[in-house]
Amino acid sequence: MASTPSSRPSPEHIFATLNARQQTAALKTAIELDLFSVIDEGNHRCREIAKRLNASDRGVRILCDFLTVLGFLRKEDERYSLNEDAALFLSKRSPHYMGTIAEFLTDKQHHENLAHLADAVRRGGTTTGRGNNLEPNDRLWVSFARSMAPLTVPTAIYIAQLVGAPELGAIRVLDIAAGHGMYGITIAQQNPKAQITAVDWPAVLEVAKENAAKAGVALRYTARAGSAFEAELGDSYDLVLLTNIFHHFDKETCVQLMRRAHQALKPDGRAVTLEFVPNEDRVSPPREAAFSLLMLVGTDAGDAYTFSEYKAMFQEAGFADTTIHRIPGMPQEVLLSQKS
Amino acid sequence: MASTPSSRPSPEHIFATLNARQQTAALKTAIELDLFSVIDEGNHRCREIAKRLNASDRGVRILCDFLTVLGFLRKEDERYSLNEDAALFLSKRSPHYMGTIAEFLTDKQHHENLAHLADAVRRGGTTTGRGNNLEPNDRLWVSFARSMAPLTVPTAIYIAQLVGAPELGAIRVLDIAAGHGMYGITIAQQNPKAQITAVDWPAVLEVAKENAAKAGVALRYTARAGSAFEAELGDSYDLVLLTNIFHHFDKETCVQLMRRAHQALKPDGRAVTLEFVPNEDRVSPPREAAFSLLMLVGTDAGDAYTFSEYKAMFQEAGFADTTIHRIPGMPQEVLLSQKS
User: Which stretch of DSSP H or E encloses residue B241?
Assistant: First the structure.
């Protein structure tokens, strides 16, 4: 989280927190308007930016000032420029552009869920009726697959290196609930003999297939449409990827899925989990710990499980050992679970 | 603002900002559930708190962990306790309780406005049709008057001291757009000979009259229902209070209201303005600067004006001199304008 309490009692932090949704709205809007690219193109004065955006001077000035307060822009002599984060991640001129993540992170479904937080606290789970996440939800997960893909690059490279993908030879990789497919695709890019099988709902798989084609690995990419819990997965895989899936379910359902992964692996195969794994205190690190709230409002019984919880679940599913690996600079962790 | 950019390029600050609305939802919900009072009563473990709130263990655990991440709670050995801000301002056992401010700050009207920020940037003003703020909006302003009153105490005392209320003898004070009325009421409390006249829409004035009665100054409190721009204000006042009103209007309308205040004052009278007054750069201090965004989405042409802008407007309206006074620990400023 970006918030820090002030050092002496003051209503300041309470105010800032109750108003925090303004920050979401301002950044989402700036990305939608493509304001950062417009500034990066050399438009620095309010009037120039407004003209390029076909917007009002007043609106642009107020939005740019707000983004300066938030630290995404700098303002000097009435000229706005991008700070490092904005230049690297929010201008379309950058190869690392990730403005698309705003679409999923600020999706109206999350807003609807958060609006019923009090009910979710009382009930102990979502009140929006989409809670079990075992049925296709094409709109939301296609949005996820399309919008979050740019963010995955550093993580996907980290995972490919961690498992030693380039040196593994002719491996078979199963990507369960593949979404954008980038984790499997990156392994295929690093290892020209790797064969990837991706499982997801049909509409979401289309996004993964597009990404595989763009990455030049389509010939080694097989798509199997269906639920992670019911699809025919095949067997004798070297690696099974389980990225951002367990947090949607209760422990029993997680173990059930781990068992399917266990069954699909070769005797010396490994399951690779990507997750928000908070420390055992559940209140640190901030981003991992905070993730639970979204699972409270959006699922029946999902959670950000701790490492000891994951270890116990993988053990129950038959895995011999699980280790944790923190990804530098990213808010998620990788778990490696050895079948034997 | 509570957000600070990280020191090296990372998507962390972008993530935190796009997710910031979760902070609003969590604190609003905790206040609604009265979670802070329940902990302050001695319920520290998840199960105890859940039982008292008639809520689920899982929901309470996740909400409390999130509030710990935000810094409102501490968690030690699975026991939650209040931090200083929460104990002082968010427990109903504290005389400084201000949880009511959540109602106005998170009002659905603001959400609706923020949801149309992109349109507001293009147009240069609100797109919700309530923009001129010259018509009564009972629901919103009664909510403001009722919910924001507790927050006014330190500011109201500061203003009463700044104008030297206790030593002024039999003064007459006009409180324009009085709202909760607390600024005038506090002067009446500090000066037993002060007579207060409050102007606001009828439904809002009821709140001010209630507060005057509670404060024991009802006999010296006169209410005049109507618009700040049209009501008969009377004349020969020593002080005219203009608190949180100018930010709703364009400069021309502000000057018009200043002229009415000028006319209502004695020759040596003073206008007292309470406002969000950012520095001339318009991007500091953070809270004052950020306030403009709400005016962009919620008004036709309102703004957080700078001191030089206020000085010029008061001069145009006939005032001799205006000085600025920063309120220690509060995000607003007081302007004193001498009629002559």
Answer: strand B237-243
A 23-42 residues with CB below 8 A of B? Answer: 23-29, 32-33
Pull the structure tokens for residue B313: 């407007």
Average of pLDDT values for A302-327? 97
pLDDT at res. A312: 98
Distance CA A23, CA B13 (A): 11
* Interchain contact B17–A (C-beta under 8 A): yes
What pTM was computed for the model?
Answer: 0.92
Q: Which residue of A has its CA nearest to B74?
A: A283
CB contact residues (below 8 A), chain A span 286-315, against chain B: 286-287, 289-290, 292-296, 301, 303
Residue B96 burial by CB count (10 A; 0-12/13-18/19+): exposed, middle or buried? middle
Contacts of residue B78 in chain A, CB cutoff 8 Å?
none
Q: Are the C-beta atoms of residues A23 and B3 closer than 8 Å to each other?
A: yes
The owner of tokens 């009377």 is: B234
pLDDT (tens digit per residue) in B135-171: 677 778 888 888 888 888 889 999 999 999 999 999 9
CA distance B286 to B307: 16
Which residue on chain A is closest to B117 by alpha carbon? A29
DSSP assignments along B86-155, one per residue: HHHHT-TTSTT--TTHHHHHT-HHHHHHHHTHHHHHHHTS-SSS-TT--S--HHHHHHHHHHHGGGGHHH
- Tell me the per-residue pLDDT of A248-295, one tens digit each, with 9 for 90 and over: 999 999 999 999 999 999 999 999 999 999 999 999 999 999 999 999
